[in-house]
TrEMBL record:
It is found in: Cytoplasm. This is Adenosine 5'-phosphosulfate reductase. The keyword Cytoplasm applies. It catalyses: [thioredoxin]-disulfide + sulfite + AMP + 2 H(+) = adenosine 5'-phosphosulfate + [thioredoxin]-dithiol. NCBIfam families: cysH (TIGR00434), PRK02090.1 (NF002537). Pfam families: PAPS_reduct (PF01507). Binds 1 [4Fe-4S] cluster per subunit. It comes from Kroppenstedtia guangzhouensis. Belongs to the PAPS reductase family. CysH subfamily. Residues 1-21, 223-253 are annotated as: Disordered.
């Protein structure tokens, strides 16, 4: 197995020269024409146990988990448990775990909801959603990814204008490792066709006009004609939790 890493990478010495930005662009271009599982297979061959996949149990991610299971079933898969996820999300986790006989790594925030309320006040998400996402998502992810050389996500170009330039393979400047987005060029229709073809468990909220599902306080149904992420942080000047790809949110005590 050939293992390579990129410049400025700290965890792990892979014994070969690092990938240059130009090589990353070339690899990404090559994989635009290939199936998403080919990207995952390449990542697993390059990075082995130093690659990890992020799963929110949304429809893109359950498809990606299934693809990974076909090509590299030993790869770690994690989810960010903010303690504020929908019951349907936990149920989807359990159904998928059973279907694939896979354990998902649970990544937790440093602070419980009670501790957060004591330090920053009740229902921080209503007053400062960026700070709340920083505490419950971005900072836990930053700590967790320190143990890996590459991470895989289910983000797609057509999900939102902020994701419209997503590449299949890119350097993640925020977290300092390679980022694989195998579904970057896939449409929602293609993802759903894959889910149906393979009978993959998915979150039933998707059938109730919840195309994008996050934490309970920050997710609502979308109305006909709204875009797929309109139900996230509705009414706020916020469209991303900060994982793709803004900077770390500082503690504001
Ligand atoms: S999505 Fe809402 S509740 Fe969840 S971490 Fe972000 S601000 Fe907090």
């Amino acid at each position: 197995m050939s293992n390579r890493t990129v410049d400025n990478h700290s965890p792990g010495d892979f014994g070969e020269r690092p990938l240059s930005p130009g090589e990353i662009r070339q690899i990404s271009k090559k994989f635009r024409e290939k199936d998403p599982w080919e990207v995952l297979r390449w990542g697993a061959e390059q990075f082995g146990k130093s690659m990890v996949l992020a799963c929110s149990f949304g429809y893109e991610d359950v498809a990606l988990v299934h693809m990974l299971h076909r090509v590299a079933p030993e790869t770690d898969i994690f989810y960010l448990d903010t303690d504020l996820l929908f019951p349907e999300t936990y149920e989807t986790r359990d159904r998928l775990a059973k279907a694939l006989d896979k354990t998902f790594i649970r990544v937790r925030p440093e602070y419980s909801l009670e501790e957060q309320a004591k330090l920053w006040g009740e229902e921080l998400w209503k007053r400062d959603a960026n700070a709340c996402c920083g505490i419950r998502k971005v900072n836990p992810l930053r700590r967790f990814l320190k143990g890996y050389s590459a991470w895989c996500t289910g983000i797609r170009r057509e999900q939102s204008p902020t994701r419209a330039h997503t590449e299949v393979v890119e350097w993640d400047h925020q977290f300092g490792l390679l980022k694989l987005n195998p579904l970057a060029y896939w449409s929602a229709k293609e993802v759903w066709a894959y889910i149906r073809e393979h009978n993959i468990p998915y979150n039933p909220m998707h059938d109730r006009r919840y195309p994008s599902i996050g934490c309970v306080p920050c997710t609502r149904q979308v109305q006909p004609g709204e875009d797929s992420r309109a139900g996230r942080w509705s009414g706020m000047d916020k469209t991303e939790c900060g994982l793709h790809p803004s900077g770390e949110i500082k503690d504001r005590r």
